[in-house]
Amino acid sequence: MFEKDKDITSYTTFGLPAKAALFAEYDSVEQLTRISRTPEFIDNTVLHIGGGSNLVFIHDFDGLVLHSGIKGITKYRKNEDEVFVMAGAGEKWTDLVEWCINEGLAGMENLSGIPGEVGAAPVQNVGAYGVEAKDVVHSVVCFDVVTRETVTFFNDYQECKDKSKNRLGFGYRDSKFKHEWKGRYFVLRVSFRLRPSNKAANLQYSALRKFAETLDHAPTTREIADEVLRLRNSKLPDPAKIGSVGSFFKNPVVSRYYFEQAMLALDPDIQHFDEPRRKENEPELVKVPAAWLIDHAGMKGMRIGGAQVDPNNALVIINTGGATGEDVEKLASKIVDHVRERFAISLEREANYIDTEIKVTILGSGTSKGVPEVGCLCDVCRSRSPFDHRRRASALVRTMGLDILIDVSPDFREQALQEDLHRVDAVLLTHSHYDHVGGLDDLRPFCAHRDVPIYLKKDVNDDLHRRLDYCFRSHPYPGVPTFDMHEIDDRPFFINGVKIIPVKVMHGGLPILGYRIGRFAYITDAKTIEEKELEKLEGLDVLVINALRFREHFSHLSISEAISIIDRLKPKTAYLTHFNHEVGRHFELAEKLPPNVHPCYDGMKITIK
User: Fold this and answer.
1) What is the CATH number of the domain that holds 451?
2) 40, 68, 117, 173: which is the annotated catalytic residue?
3) Whole-number Å distance between alpha carbons of 17 and 35
4) In terms of CB atoms within 10 Å, which of 162, 171, 328, 479 comes out highest?
C-alpha cells in the first residue's frame, strides 16, 4: 500500500527534486478510508497532492504523500438549460475541459490549458481569461480525515444573492480548502454546472472580445479554447518544457488609504485597479499587479542557481535546469525584499512551500516583568550579557511556508525588528494576560493586505474585544490593526494544512493553552498538566516549557517541576523559558540542568528536521 522514499519530482510541474518518506495512491473512497486507519497515516505529517501545479518542495518530505487516482467523468441533465458534470479528483484538468467541449457543453473553455488535476480546481479557485472555478463549480465531494466520512459542500455563489453564504469561501485564487479546511478535507469528486451549447459562454476578457470581433459569427467553445491556449502560450512557459508553477505571487490587494498614503509616496506611477469590497464595511480597495511591481523593482531575469524570474513574465519563476527548492526559496525571498523596499508592500505567494522542517525562534524568554526588572540592582539585572536580557515570552514558528506567532508580547515591536520580521500568517494565543497579548497593536504593519488570523479560546476572544474594542468596530479608524478571530478549544485544527494540537494546561486556577506542531511543542505559564493532556505531548523531538525560578510558585512551574514533566515525557531535547531574574546568569543556569535540558535565550534558533 505504501512506497518508501518515493521520488515525487514528476508529480509537480516545477520539476524540483524531492522524495517522500512514504507515498500512497488510492482509487476509491474505501481504499482511502483504509489508509486513514493505518499508523503510517496517523503518526505522520500527511500531504495530499494533485497534479502538483502549485507546489514547491523545499526539501524532501518527511511524511506521507497521498495522491488521488479517482477517475471518471459523467454527466446528467437537470433541465434544458443546465447540465451537470461530475469528475474524479484524479482526472487531468485539461482532459476535463476538452471532454466538456467535445460534449457540447459551455462554461469551461476559458479555463483551457491550466495544468493540474480536477481536485485542485476548487481548492485554488483556478481562473483565467474572465472565468474562475467558482463560476462553474456546483459542489465538491470530500473525505473528512477527522470523522472518516464523505461530505459534500455546495457552492451557493450562483444560487444566493447574499454571497456571504458561499459555503466554499471562494475568493481570488482562494477557498476554505486553502485555509481552515486544508489538511482536513481531501477532494474526491467535483460537480460542475454547465450550459448545453457550442457557443462560448464568457467573452468578458478584453483579448477574447477583440478576438470575437474578428469573426463573422459568435465564437464557439472550440474557437475560444484555442484562442485561450494561444494566449497562454504567448505569456507562460510550457510546463512540459520549462518547470514552473505559473504565477508565483498573488496580485496584492490593499486599502486605498494605504495605497495613497504609503505606496504612491514612493512612486506616483504605480499601476493599479479598483477592487470590489469583500465585506460590507470594508474600506475601498486597490489591486496592484504583482508582475508590474517585480518588473519595476528590477527583478525580471534575476537568477539564483537554477531558478530564474522569467525574462518574458516577471510573475513567473522558472526552473532553467537543476533548480532546487532552496534556489527557488532564496530567489522568491529576494523578490519580496526588493519589492517591499521599493514599494512598501509585501508580496504574498500563490505557490505553496512544502517543507516539514520546523524552525523555531524564541522571541522572548522572560516572565511578565522581563529581565532586567525595572529598579532591580541584582547581578543578573545589571549583567551586560545579551543572554541575560529577557523580553516577555513568545515564539515564532516557521514551517510549510508559514510564519506562526505564539503569543504577541508587549516587546513584540523590538522582537520583530530584531528578527527582521516582515510577515505573520497566523497568531496562536495561549491566554489573555498582558505579557502575552500586549503587542497585538504592533501587528498593524501585517494587516495592510488582510486581517491577521488569530486563534484563541472564547474567553480570550471576549476579553480582547473589550480591551481592544477599537480594532473591532464596524468602521475602524484607518490604520488600526484588524484581525480574523478563530475561536478554538482543545481539539486539533489546521492552519493552511499545518495541524495544530492545543494542549490544555492550568495556570494556577486558569485553564490556558499550549500548542503542539508536529514533533515540537510550546508550553508557557503552566503550573499543572493533566495526564490526558500530557499524552498529547508524547513522542516529541523538542519541548519548550516554562520554568519561572527554583522556588515554587502558585501559578508557574518551578525549574524542578518542569524537569519532572520533561522526565515523564522524554522528548529528545527540552528547553526552559519564561524565567525571572532569580534563575541567575544564563550560563550558570545551563550548568545546573540535565544534559538534554537547556535554558532558552532571546533570539535562540531551534530546528526540528
Assistant:
1) 3.60.15.10
2) 173
3) 26
4) 328
| CA gap 335, 300 in Å, rounded | 9
Closest-CA residue to 376 (of 603, 580, 555): 580
Q: Give yes or no: residues 251 and 321 share one domain.
A: yes
Tell me if residue 37 is catalytic.
no
Of 354, 385, 404, the residue at which a domain comes to its end is 354
Query: Of 392, 346, 387, which is closest to residue 368 (Cα–Cα)?
Result: 392
Residue type, 380: V
Nearest one of 382, 445, 446, 437 to 411, comparing CA atoms:
437
Domain span including residue 547: 358-608
Active site residue 195: no
Given 219, 235, 251, the domain boundary residue is 235
Mind giving me the DSSP string for 481-517?
--EEEEE--SS-EEETTEEEEEEEEEETTEEEEEEEE
Straight-line distance from the first to the last Cα atom of the chain, in angstroms, rounded to the nearest whole number: 25
Whether residue 292 is found in the same domain as residue 432 = no
3-state secondary structure 76-140: EEEECCEEEEEEECCCEHHHHHHHHHHCCEECCHHHCCCCCECCHHHHHCCEECCEEHHHCEEEE
HEC profile of 59-73? CCEEEEEEEECCCCE
Q: What are phi and psi of 433, to 5 degrees?
A: -60, 145
The answer to whether 148 and 154 have CB atoms below 8 angstroms apart is no
Q: Find the catalytic residue in 25, 109, 132, 350.
A: 350
Where residue 310 sits, what CATH number does that domain have?
3.90.78.10
- What does the block give as the cell for 390? 529577557
Alpha-carbon Rg for the chain in angstroms: 26
What's the domain count of the chain?
Answer: 3
pTM recorded for the entire structure: 0.84
- Respond yes or no: is residue 247 known to be catalytic: yes
Residue from 139, 247, 255, 432 carrying the catalytic annotation: 247
Identify whether residues 127 and 161 lie together within a single domain. yes
**Residue 606 pLDDT class (50, 70, 90 cuts):** very high
H, E, C per residue of 308-319: EECCCCCCEEEE
| Grid cell digits, residue 439 | 503587542
Closest to 46 measured CA to CA, from 34, 58, 35:
35
Three-state secondary-structure class, residue 590: helix
Co-location of 342 and 393 in the same domain: no
For 509-558, how does the pLDDT look when each residue is reduced to its tens digit (9 = 90+)?
A: 999 999 999 999 999 999 999 999 999 999 999 999 999 999 999 999 99
Q: Which residues contact 10 (CB under 8 A, 6 or more apart)?
A: none
List the grid coordinates of 488.
478554538
The domain that contains 84 carries what CATH number? 3.30.465.10
Confidence of residue 235 (pLDDT cuts 50, 70, 90): confident
Cα–Cα distance measured from residue 9 to residue 436, given in angstroms and rounded to the nearest whole number = 42
Is pLDDT of 278 > 70? no
For 365, residues 6+ apart whose C-beta sits below 8 A from its C-beta are 390, 391, 393, 577, 578, 579, 599, 600, 601, 602, 604
Q: Within a domain: residue 11?
A: no
Query: Would the pLDDT of 193 be above 50?
Result: yes
